[in-house]
C-alpha cells in the first residue's frame, strides 16, 4: 500500500506539459455493477494523495453537496470528482440492478489490462455453470462457475453478457444478464513532439522530446519511444528514453518530425502529430590553416597534415588546399563540418614552401593566411672504411676509421665502435664525414662499425672486419717424453709452439744445421714433429716459427744418448745360443769340437776339412731339430741366411784373440749387408742377441781389422758374436745411465758353412 502511495506521489502528470493532472475514482467493492439495495464507496484521489482541500463531486454532471474525499452511493448513474490541484476525473458509471443475474467487470480498467468478468446470481445457493458472450458471440468454451479473465482490452465499444440455466422440481429455464460495456480508461494520451530549439541553426545540436503521461494507478508501466523524420526512423530505433539528441542538424534536414510511444508488451501504441522543423544556414568566416606536426618543421619521410577550419559557417562546406607558386590544387573535400584535413604522405625535400587553404558554403570562397613548412633530412646509413698504411694491418700500425653518411641535415655526430665498445666520437657541424685514428694492438682484431646521428634518429653502418696480424713470438721447443733417456728406435716428439702470432704459422725443425722438416699450423698454436731415433740422433735441436712477418727461432735444446754397442748385442746372442745348447747337448758337443779344430788350424796344424764339416753338421742340426714354432715365437725376424759358400780363414796365420770392440766409426765398414737381430729368449732377464753378417773383405778391411786374417780375398765369412748382459742391466738403467757398463770380453768365431747345411 505504501509503495502504491509513493508511486502516486512521484507519478508524472500533466503538469509536466503545463496541464493539471486528472483526479481518479476508486470503487469499493471494485465492481461497476451491483444488485439493487447494495452500497458502493467512492474515493476521489489525485497525485498528492490524500487530496488537499475540498473535493467537488458530480452526479450525472450535476454538482453534489458532498465535499469530503469519500462518499457512499446506491443509485445508478455517472460519477466524477475534482480536487483543488487536479482536473476532472474520468466519469465512472455505477449501476444497481434488480435482476436475478448480473455481469460484473473489475474497476478501474486501462488499455492493455486484463479484465475480470464475474456472472453472479442473486442469492444463488448452488453454483452452476455460466456461459459468457461478447457482442452476442460465445467466448469460446467458457464454462465456469466463478469468473473469466479477458486479456489486453482496448478502447472498444463491445457488449458482454452471460447466461445460466436454472431448474426446480417442475421445470428448467435460462437466465440472461443485462449487457455490460466495460469502462476502459486511456493508459496514456497520444504523445506530443517538441524540438529544442524550435528553429535551429545549421550545424547546431537539436533535442527532440516525445511527451506523454501515465495515470498514477499505472505509473509503473514501462513505455518505449521512437522518433521519425518523414517515414525514416532516427537514432537506434525504439528506446526507453523519451528524448533524442541530434548532434548537428543541417539545412537539408528541414522536414516533418513525429514520434511514437508504446508499452513494452506492444499492447498499446500511439503516435504524435507531425511537427515541422526549419534549419537556418550561416556563411563561413575566419578561415585558418594549421600544420601538423606543430610549427611546420617536418622530417623527410613523415606525413604532413594540413587542417583547414572556419570559425563560423553552416551547411555543406567545400575545403581546398594550395601551395604558393603552384597552380595545381593539392586537395579538395566537401563535408558538413567546420574543419577538414589533408594528409600528404612521405614528404620530400621538394615539398617545402608556404601553404594556404580556402572554404566555401555557396556564399564564395574565403582564404586563410600563408603558413611556412620546412623539412629536415634524417641520416642515411653511413659507410665505414678502414684505411691502413699497408695491405695487411700489423700491430703498431695507425689506421684511419672513416665514417660518412651521404644524406642528412647537419650537424652530424659520428661515433666509432669496436665490437660493442665505443672507441670515440667526432662531430661534422657542416655535414660530410669524420675520421678516427687508431693505433693497433693485438687486441684490435674484430668487427668495427660507426653511427651517425643528427637528432632525427641514429643510423648504424655495416660491420667491417679488421684482422690485425701479430708477429710470432719466440717459439719454445720441448721434447716428449721429457726426463727419460731415449734409445735407438724410440719415437721422439719435438713440440714447437709460439705463444703469440697470427695464423697461419709455419714451423721449421732443425738438428744442428740440418733441416728435419716443416709443418704448417693453419689455425695457430703449436705443432709437433715425430723423430724416429737412429744411430746419430745426438746433438742440438731447435725450431723456428714464421707467419710472414719475420722468423723467430727457439733456443737450442741439446739431446745426448748412448747407442747400444756390438758387445752387448754379442752378449745377448751368446745368451740365446747358450740356452739352446743347454737343451740340445749334442749340438753343444758338436760346437765344442768345431771350435777345437778351428783353433788347431789357426796355429798352423794341417786339417782335412773335418772341423768345417762338423760345424756344418752342428748348424744343420740346429736348423733341423729345433721346432720351427719355437724359433718363430722367440725371434723378432726370421734369419735369412743364404751365402753360397763360406771359406775357412787362412791357416797360415794364427787366429787373433784380440777382444777389442770395434769403434762406432768401424760399423759402416763391417756392415756391408744389413745385420739381422733375433731375440731368442725375450722372457728371461738375461737377454741374448745374435748377429750374423756376410762380409766381402777389401783391402781396407784387411788392413783395419785386427781380429782375423783373410786367406782368400773373395771369401764369404760369417761372424757370430755372443755376449751375455749383466744382471743389473735393466731398461730403466739403460735409459737413465746409458750403456755405462759393457763387457770387455767378446767372442768371435769364423765358421765355414757348407751349402748343404744352409740349404737345409
Automatic annotation (TrEMBL):
The chain crosses the membrane at residues 569-593. It comes from the Eukaryota. Residues 1-16 form the signal peptide. Keywords: Cell membrane, Disulfide bond, Glycoprotein, Immunoglobulin domain, Membrane, Receptor, Repeat, Signal, Transmembrane, Transmembrane helix. Coiled coil: none annotated. It is a single-pass type I membrane protein. One of its GO terms (biological process) is immune response. This is Fc receptor like 3. SMART domains: IG, IGc2. GO terms for cellular component: external side of plasma membrane. GO terms for molecular function: transmembrane signaling receptor activity. InterPro entries: Ig-like_dom (IPR007110), Ig-like_dom_sf (IPR036179), Ig-like_fold (IPR013783), Ig_Fc_receptor (IPR050488), Ig_sub (IPR003599), Ig_sub2 (IPR003598), Immunoglobulin_dom (IPR013151). It comes from Equus caballus. It is found in: Cell membrane. Residues 21-95, 189-269, 283-374, 382-469, 475-548 form the Ig-like domain.
Amino acid at each position: 500500500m505504501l509503495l502504491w502511495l509513493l508511486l502516486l506521489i512521484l507519478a508524472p502528470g500533466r503538469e509536466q506539459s503545463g496541464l493539471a493532472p486528472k483526479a481518479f475514482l476508486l470503487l469499493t467493492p471494485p465492481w461497476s455493477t451491483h444488485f439493487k439495495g447494495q452500497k458502493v464507496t467512492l474515493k476521489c484521489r489525485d497525485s498528492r494523495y490524500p487530496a488537499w482541500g475540498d473535493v467537488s463531486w458530480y452526479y450525472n454532471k450535476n454538482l453534489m453537496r458532498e465535499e469530503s474525499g469519500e462518499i457512499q452511493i446506491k443509485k445508478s448513474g455517472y460519477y466524477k470528482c475534482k480536487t483543488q490541484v487536479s482536473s476532472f476525473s474520468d466519469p465512472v458509471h455505477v449501476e444497481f440492478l434488480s435482476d436475478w443475474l448480473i455481469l460484473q467487470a473489475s474497476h478501474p480498467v486501462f488499455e492493455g489490462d486484463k479484465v475480470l468478468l464475474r456472472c453472479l446470481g442473486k442469492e444463488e445457493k448452488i453454483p452452476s455453470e455460466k456461459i459468457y458472450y461478447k457482442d452476442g458471440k460465445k467466448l469460446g468454451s467458457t464454462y465456469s462457475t466463478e469468473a473469466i479473465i479477458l486479456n489486453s482490452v482496448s478502447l472498444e465499444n463491445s457488449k458482454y453478457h452471460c447466461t445460466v440455466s436454472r431448474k426446480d422440481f417442475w421445470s428448467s429455464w435460462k437466465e440472461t444478464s443485462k449487457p455490460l460495456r466495460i469502462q476502459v480508461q486511456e493508459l496514456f494520451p497520444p504523445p506530443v513532439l517538441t524540438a529544442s530549439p524550435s528553429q535551429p541553426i545549421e550545424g547546431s545540436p537539436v533535442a527532440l522530446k516525445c511527451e506523454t503521461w501515465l495515470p498514477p494507478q499505472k505509473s509503473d508501466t514501462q513505455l518505449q519511444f521512437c522518433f521519425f523524420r518523414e517515414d525514416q526512423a532516427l537514432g537506434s530505433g525504439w528506446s526507453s528514453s523519451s528524448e533524442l539528441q541530434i548532434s548537428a542538424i543541417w539545412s537539408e534536414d528541414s522536414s516533418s518530425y513525429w514520434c511514437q510511444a508504446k508499452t513494452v508488451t506492444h499492447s498499446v501504441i500511439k503516435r504524435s502529430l507531425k511537427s515541422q522543423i526549419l534549419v537556418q544556414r550561416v556563411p563561413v568566416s575566419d578561415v585558418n590553416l594549421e600544420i601538423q606536426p606543430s610549427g611546420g618543421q617536418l622530417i623527410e619521410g613523415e606525413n604532413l597534415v594540413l587542417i583547414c577550419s572556419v570559425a563560423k559557417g553552416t551547411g555543406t562546406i567545400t575545403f581546398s588546399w594550395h601551395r604558393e607558386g603552384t597552380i595545381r590544387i593539392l586537395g579538395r573535400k566537401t563535408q558538413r563540418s567546420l574543419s577538414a584535413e589533408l594528409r600528404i604522405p612521405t614528404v620530400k625535400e621538394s615539398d617545402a614552401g608556404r601553404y594556404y587553404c580556402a572554404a566555401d558554403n555557396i556564399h564564395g570562397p574565403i582564404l586563410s593566411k600563408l603558413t611556412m613548412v620546412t623539412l629536415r633530412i634524417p641520416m642515411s646509413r653511413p659507410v665505414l672504411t678502414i684505411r691502413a698504411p699497408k695491405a695487411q694491418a700489423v700491430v703498431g700500425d695507425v689506421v684511419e676509421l672513416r665514417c660518412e653518411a651521404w644524406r642528412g641535415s647537419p650537424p652530424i655526430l659520428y661515433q666509432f665502435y669496436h665490437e660493442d665498445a665505443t672507441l670515440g666520437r667526432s662531430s661534422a657541424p657542416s655535414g660530410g664525414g669524420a675520421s678516427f685514428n687508431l693505433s693497433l694492438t693485438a687486441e684490435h682484431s674484430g668487427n668495427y662499425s660507426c653511427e651517425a646521428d643528427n637528432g632525427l634518429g641514429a643510423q648504424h653502418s655495416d660491420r667491417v672486419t679488421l684482422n690485425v696480424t701479430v708477429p710470432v713470438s719466440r717459439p719454445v721447443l720441448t721434447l716428449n717424453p721429457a726426463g727419460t733417456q731415449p734409445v735407438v728406435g724410440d719415437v721422439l716428439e719435438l713440440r714447437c709452439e709460439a705463444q703469440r702470432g697470427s695464423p697461419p704459422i709455419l714451423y721449421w725443425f732443425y738438428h744442428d744445421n740440418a733441416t728435419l722438416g716443416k709443418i704448417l699450423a693453419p689455425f695457430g698454436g703449436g705443432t709437433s714433429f715425430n723423430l724416429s731415433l737412429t744411430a746419430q740422433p745426438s746433438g742440438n735441436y731447435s725450431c723456428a716459427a714464421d707467419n710472414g712477418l719475420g722468423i723467430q727461432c727457439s733456443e737450442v735444446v741439446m739431446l745426448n744418448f748412448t747407442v747400444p754397442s756390438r758387445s752387448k748385442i754379442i752378449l745377448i746372442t751368446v745368451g740365446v745360443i747358450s740356452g739352446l745348447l743347454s737343451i740340445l747337448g749334442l749340438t753343444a758337443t758338436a760346437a765344442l769340437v768345431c771350435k777345437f779344430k778351428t783353433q788347431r788350424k789357426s796355429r798352423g796344424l794341417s786339417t782335412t776339412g773335418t772341423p768345417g764339416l762338423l760345424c756344418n753338421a752342428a748348424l744343420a742340426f740346429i736348423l733341423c731339430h729345433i721346432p720351427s714354432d719355437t724359433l718363430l715365437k722367440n725371434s723378432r725376424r726370421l734369419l735369412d741366411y743364404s751365402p753360397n759358400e763360406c771359406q775357412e780363414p787362412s791357416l797360415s796365420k794364427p787366429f787373433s784373440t784380440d777382444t777389442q770392440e770395434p769403434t762406432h766409426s768401424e760399423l759402416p765398414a763391417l756392415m756391408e749387408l744389413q745385420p739381422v737381430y733375433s731375440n731368442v729368449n725375450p722372457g728371461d732377464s738375461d737377454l741374448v742377441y745374435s748377429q750374423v753378417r756376410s762380409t766381402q773383405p777389401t783391402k781396407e778391411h784387411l788392413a783395419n781389422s785386427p781380429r782375423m786374417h783373410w786367406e782368400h780375398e773373395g771369401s764369404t765369412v760369417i761372424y757370430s758374436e755372443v755376449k751375455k748382459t749383466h744382471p743389473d742391466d735393466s731398461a730403466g738403467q739403460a735409459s737413465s745411465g746409458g750403456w755405462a757398463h759393457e763387457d770387455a770380453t767378446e767372442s768371435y768365431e769364423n765358421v765355414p758353412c757348407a751349402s748343404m747345411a744352409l740349404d737345409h
